[in-house]
Amino acid sequence: MKVDAAVVDEILKFMKTDKGLSFNFLSDITAVDFLKDRGVFEVVYHLLSMKNNVRVRIKAEVPESKPELPSATSVYKGANWFERETYDMFGITFTGHPDLRRIMNPDDFPGHPLRKDFDVAPKDEYCPVPVIKPDN
Amino acid sequence: MKEDPKDDLIPINIGPSHPAVHGTLPIYAKLDGEIIAEADVEIGYLHRGFEKLAEDLTYHQFIPFTDRLNYVSTFINNQGYAEAIEKLLDIEVPERAHYIRVMLSEVSRIMDHITCLGPNMVDTGALTVYWYLFRVREELYRLCEMVSGARMTTNYTRIGGLVRDLPEGFEDTAREILKGLPVAIKDTEKLIKKNRIFLDRSIGVGEISAEDAIDWGFSGPNLRACGVARDIRKDEPYSVYDDLEFDIPVGNRGDYYDRTFVRLEEMNQSMRIILQVLDKLPKGPINIDDPKIILPPKEEVYDSMEGLIHHFMFFIEGMEDIPEGEIYHAVEGANGELGFYIVSDGEKNPYRLHVRSPCFAYYQAFPSMITGKLLADAVVTLGSLNVVAGELDR
After folding, report:
1. In the structure, how many helices (H) and strands (E) does chain B have?
2. What fold is seen in the domain A2-95?
3. What is the rounded CA–CA span in Å between residue B235 and residue B223?
């Protein structure tokens, strides 16, 4: 199900609070990089309704030039770390997130790893600890 | 963490390498006496970049990586991944393979619960429980080794079936080992169930309400201990779980006591499933009959030219005719909902592979669970949540 990125938090709130739908469990938030083909990131939300035993997948597209999306932490508390991971791996910012910082990679890591254009074998290596080289 | 101008609180760092945390999980706590006023956790010390690696590997080449996710219950990860790909390719695995996968998943589940309970009891001070339970785990490792050749990194399922059939003598060995499990569980219960010290240490510790738990994304034994009877094996049955009879233990308070006893009872139920499978195990093939999907058996690879070329093409060129599309498949891991989200664009590598790990979802709630509580309770709560770093960081 594809939705508009600007209002994704209101849609999630509706899906959670509506008595008929009652999607009270957020399974997963992640993103897929379609920059080469379509120039967008696709942010994917997986929801589960425990009452009706139904799963749904909601997708929101964000363009590469402005990868921003409203945060779902006001609707589901569990969205916190999932959004941090998506930010860490793709560089998609979630506005309204209480603490958006990198989660898996070190804080000063250059780049966003899961983007398709991330170079896994760069020429000058990133090293998080100071390296002491011999003087000769 | 926020900078507080009137900082009377003592910051301590229950650091990444510490005997009380199970895995590399630092907790940055600010203490007010012995009560934790603020807490923050950090993850990512075991981040190996599986999701990025998967984009360069074929579907078959990724199977050994799934062992390393939740490394204490490896068959469940293998089964989850294989079933996700089988759903994407829309193929049906023979019954014998389903039953063997279910049986070995339940063996893994028992091993995971033992690995959670043993060290957790050591944290609380009950050292003898560790020995009672780990003896059974050692025997179960012997069973894993019989089946797959490795104790921990089993790598046993393949897309379309299993790598090899059960060896001779498996059933007798399994039944004999499983005789030791109820004895160990009963001894554990006798030691802790009416023990004044354990009850004081565990009732009301690390409590979380059911609504909070669902909101944070809890699943598995931690959610069932809060009173929510939700188990993917019963509610969305996959494989042959709807042919098997088992119950789901549910707690009521969501504290450390409930989590311990839910896990103990789940071990009993897993044993019930294994004995049913051993009785019902059908004869027949273990792999589907499609040479485009299943690897050739090793005898053919070593003896015939066609087998060798077939094997070579699989690992260099990958499978052909993979449909485009995406799939999300969730299995009941030992810690909760283990999901695989695979996006395929028809190539031999997945376009995107994402693992929804249960530990990631419930470890978010950990800082709020320990704030305002004693420091010793924080250690015990961390163990009872059963956070496995491999699954958390992927």
Report:
1. 17, 8
2. Beta Polymerase; domain 2 (3.30.460)
3. 14
pTM above 0.90, yes or no: no
Amino acid residing at A97: H
Q: Which domain holds residue B385?
A: 59-352+375-393
What are the extents of the domains in chain A? 2-95
Name chain B contacts of A103, Cβ cutoff 8 Å.
43-44
Among the listed ranges A112-116, B176-180, B364-368, which one has the minimum average pLDDT value?
A112-116
Is the ipTM of this structure higher than 0.90?
A: no
* Local confidence band at B47 (pLDDT 50, 70, 90 cut-offs): confident
Q: Tell me: the pLDDT tens digits for B126-161?
A: 888 888 888 888 988 988 888 888 888 888 888 888
Confidence of residue B206 (pLDDT cuts 50, 70, 90): confident
The residue among A24, A28, A86, A100 with the most chain B CBs within 10 A of its CB, best to mutate, is: A28
- Could you tell me the CATH number of the domain that includes residue B255? 1.10.645.10
Q: What is the DSSP string of B315-376?
A: HHH--S-PPEEEEEEEEE-SSSEEEEEEEEESSSS-SEEEEE-HHHHHHTTHHHHHTTSBHH
The one-letter amino acid at B57: L
Cβ contact, residue pair B216, A113, below 8 Å: no
CB B159 within 8 A of CB B86: yes
